[in-house]
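Changelog-adjacent note: as of this version, every example in the card shows the full chain rather than a window. The one below runs 516 residues end to end.
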Amino acid sequence: MANQPRYKSIKREILISVTLKQTRVAILEDGRLVELMVDRESEKRMVGDIYKGIVHRVLPGMQASFVDIGLPKQGFLHVSDVGYELVELDFDDGSEEQAGRRKPRKLQSIQDQLEEGQELIVQVIKEPIGTKGPRVSTEISLPGRLLVYAPFDNRIGISRKIEEPRERARIREIIRKIVTKSEGVIVRTVAEDTTEGEFKTEYSSLKNLWRRIRRQAGHAQAPSLIYQEMKLISGLLRDVFNERVDSLVVDSKAQFKQIKSYLRIISPKLINRLQLYKDNKPLFTRYNLDEEIRRVYNNRVWLKRGGYIVIEPTEALVSIDVNTGRYTGEKDQEETILRTNLEAAREIARQIRLRDLGGIIVCDFIDMESKENQQRVLDEFRKYLKFDRARTKAFDVSPLGLVEMSRQRVRSSLFYSLTAPCPVCEGRGRIFTPEVVTAEIEVTLKKIGFRGKESKLLLKVHPAVALHLMEEEYYLLQELENKTRISIQLRDDPLMRLDDFAIFSLPSRKQIDTNL
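Full-length structure tokens:
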């Protein structure tokens, strides 16, 4: 297939940087940042978590219900997420497992399936976004490294990225021998060339996990959490770290040991690709990622040839506009536009992954007269979208010359998860939250400490950030003083922007460039 990305020709690296309050993960392809994930203590990831909930309200007009799962925001359960076979919670004294009795039924309206006060098992399938609570489903799925186990399905699915027909047929034959007709599995991309024994082991493990979850549901009082999905790093090792990744570099000894122990269980052959980063220079600085990460929050992205794209997220959709900018390289205008559009198609696919944009995305490429050139740009765009781990679909060019696409939305984009509405401009813009500013301060002070030129510093921040440092992260500056051997004075300054800070050398009071 001419448009299929050549996985083996790409150098893939995973970098994990751990600080006191957050963990950042960067995925690089041929040295370029393509995915960035941030896991902060103050924010809880929920997708994959399973709850024993209580139906709070049934809304026939919306064909949905709200489910109390014990969180401030109730779960939203749409009729399309109520599985074909609903779990009837039926327990006696809880001493023996009685759960999971499956009730065959035809597709029905929400009011015919659920009633207020009813208890049921639900799984979070989308994080809370903005004012919306988490989206939940009664269709439970438990992901493993090779398989996704679906106890209430009866289908066998195989990742589209396993393309070789013989391999697909071999896998399907093995799975049919292992899995009963009353349950289903999805075979993941990493399972290519996996033996029958390996499939059996993971299938048994996932099935036993589901038994434990049902037993826990029998003992638990609703609403309550009965199963928590893996955290960022363990989930990353399960879902992303495989033979196609050349190296995984982590800068924390504690996390290095945990990852090594985990790999011994799930994939011992990958241990030799694990590296502990020991340099005093921050890991992301060593790989020149700091400026790249800052640019993630800009709406304009420059292309190498001088063109640029503008990314504008809104509540309804994300619009992306392509412009030739300074690029006028070809004598033939159509050829100039084609080259710009081809470069933009590759960069847009990368930026969508990097910024974790989801939902409806509309791309306005530069108008081209040639239908053949329009198709070339669309083919290039689809080719690079195939690298995305999230489900994507790019539609044909519309009569207005737009390319509409959809991308699986699981959580808020980086832009929205790490920023807050600006209080000055009444929500027309966004600023970094105090947590994000504090994380940036930590990285910057470590860089200054690495240079070894300072012994005493003055840190100026907005009063809101100073309050956050004193109340929520009071130990941070002390920890940084111990690590960098620099004395740090904190001062609040109401004239500072909420999402900015300044560092001065003492006693000279000369301001230090924070873009080190």
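Structural remarks: The chain has four domains: 7-44+245-290, 52-227, 298-407, 418-512.
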